[in-house]
Amino acid sequence: MISEIADPREAVATIFNAAVAASAIGSAWELGLLDEVQSKKEVDLEEFCLRNDLDLPSMQMLVTALEITDILVRESGERSAVIPGRLLEETIITKSLFHWLMIGSAGLFSRIPHVIRNANRAGTFFTRDPIAISEACKDINEQHFEKFFWQAMSGLDQQVSCVVDLGSGSGERLVQILEKHPAATGIGIDISLEAVQQAEFDTSNRGFGERLSFVEGDARDMHYQDEFASVSLITSFMFGHDLWRRDSSDPRKNCIASLRKIREAFPNAQRFLLGDTTRVLNCPESEFGVTGKSVPAFPLAFELGHDLMGECRIPTMEEWIDVFPDAGWRLRKRHLVQSSYLSVIFELE
């Protein structure tokens, strides 16, 4: 922990260098360097830059940022060999969290002084990169949710004929479900037109064009359509907190209204797998609240980011459980996601 570094100058330097390294992690993943070092165990940086048309001096400094933080190591000698550092494996697990923060949400966090002033908090007062957010969430699902999602899926006592994914992003979860259920079809609903168009393009190229469709829509305000009648399973990951809209004095009331609309829009759905990250900071009343040394990666960025955007309130585990009965859903099971931060998959009916 930073407070345990005795020299204040060293402690502040550590904070500053960690901020640079956070950006370097997201960038090195997007550029393919992290995955290549992990898989090959040694990468010639000059050859890597030549092959990927990258500026060598910039990449050398990017690697320096990762070397200072024990993620990568440069071997001494004539060759520009880069090998895994002590923290590479853990960084690979959390790389998309850094990407979500430093690339997908850069337009938000770089403008905190502007965003936090009440005079500016109207209309479009921040920007984020929806494609980068979608790609980060895809990897977050793979690294943190996927194992527990399939455990929940394997316990379902129903046939999956048609599945809808709310906040579908890249569409990867729908593809995986359809691969395991060859007779099933799927519908992806996302509020970002860019994400919908990208998902349509990518999944069609993978041969799912006839079985998958994507719709631009607000899952917080669902309405019945004829094609929804066949939906037997609803899934949603990293989206549920958006139901707790702060456009009124009562986010809980908004969440209940949205959950009821989801129930009405998909009247034949037998199960709803709702996975999300819950609030753990500044909530001493919660069983899962954390402070000080116990704060893991992601909650600070996730909770601060959403408070800055002002669109929703991140609920605690207890607040989630409390809304389901009033919204017309019964909680069958709570699947805790054993990750570096607290997440959960609620199995509803």
UniProtKB/TrEMBL annotation:
UniProt-listed Pfam families: Methyltransf_31
Keywords assigned: Methyltransferase, Transferase
UniProt cross-references to Gene3D superfamilies, sorted A to Z:
Vaccinia Virus protein VP39, Winged helix-like DNA-binding domain superfamily/Winged helix DNA-binding domain
Signal peptide interval:
none
User: Could you give a GO molecular-function term held by this entry?
Assistant: methyltransferase activity
Q: Which GO terms describe its biological process?
A: methylation
The yes or no answer to whether the keyword ATP-binding is present is no
- By its UniProt entry, which InterPro entries does this protein fall under? Methyltranfer_dom, SAM-dependent_MTases_sf, WH-like_DNA-bd_sf
All residue ranges annotated as the Methyltransferase domain in the record: 163-237
Protein name from the UniProt record: S-adenosyl-L-methionine-dependent methyltransferase
Organism field: Ophiobolus disseminans
